């Protein structure tokens, strides 16, 4: 078996908060001396949870795997809007949310289930005029963004402790959950931002099968390769899934 094939496969990582997705990729590339490493779907530093890491020839699957549905758990806070639409951003508006009822929250969330159009946030990596939006946002610029078609397959409220609302969402690729939180706040008339986010699933992959960064740091190269799902099995599983 050639070296690249031997280090080709997928491993699931539970990304910790404050790490970027690229930090995880770099950690694996450098620690285990693997030439090609990528990931399937960026998680913001504020978010935790499932990151699908592809190595070697499996990096060619990243475009396909990135298009699959995602499942997240999260929480939003009513009454405060931020420029990034999450708790890390600068506060841009505050409104009284004391009059919002649990019933109103559930009704508002129900309106976002199904095919919807979503305007991406300024603080995102989407390029406009060849420049990522977040770079324009850093300069204080805001440009018009084209709405995108997404699908919210389900949006379940798991707990309400106003002004905080916990939820679980199953959505299509390209969904910005922080924008969903902000849009729910706008629907309620009080504004909102995303407080927490955790990815639970991506396509057929589940957080229950993911390894922690501490696990990764404890391994030597041979143990990492042994933990990785080999490319052949990944391809066989994907072929079985489409039958």
Describe the structure.
With 243 residues, the chain is of the alpha+beta class. The protein has helices at residues 3-6, 21-32, 62-66, 102-110, 133-138, 177-188, 213-218, 221-227, 231-241, and strands at 9-15, 37-39, 48-55, 70-78, 80-82, 91-94, 114-118, 127-128, 131-132, 148-161, 164-171, 192-202, 205-206, 211-212, 229-230. The protein folds into two domains: 3-67 and 203-241, Alpha-Beta Plaits (2-Layer Sandwich); 70-198, 2-Layer Sandwich (Pseudouridine synthase). Strands 1, 2, 3, 4, 7, 10, 11, 12, 13, 14 and 15 form an eleven-stranded mixed beta sheet that branches. Strand 12 (192-202) and strand 13 form a beta hairpin. It is elongated and about 65 Å long.
In short:
By secondary structure, this protein is an alpha+beta fold. The chain contains nine helices and 15 strands. It has two domains: 104 residues, 2-Layer Sandwich (Alpha-Beta Plaits); 129 residues, Pseudouridine synthase.
Tell me the layout of helices and strands.
Elements: H1 3-6, E1 9-15, H2 21-32, E2 37-39, E3 48-55, H3 62-66, E4 70-78, E5 80-82, E6 91-94, H4 102-110, E7 114-118, E8 127-128, E9 131-132, H5 133-138, E10 148-161, E11 164-171, H6 177-188, E12 192-202, E13 205-206, E14 211-212, H7 213-218, H8 221-227, E15 229-230, H9 231-241
Parallel strand pairs: 1-14, 3-12
Antiparallel strand pairs: 1-3, 1-15, 2-3, 4-11, 4-12, 5-6, 7-10, 8-9, 10-11, 12-13
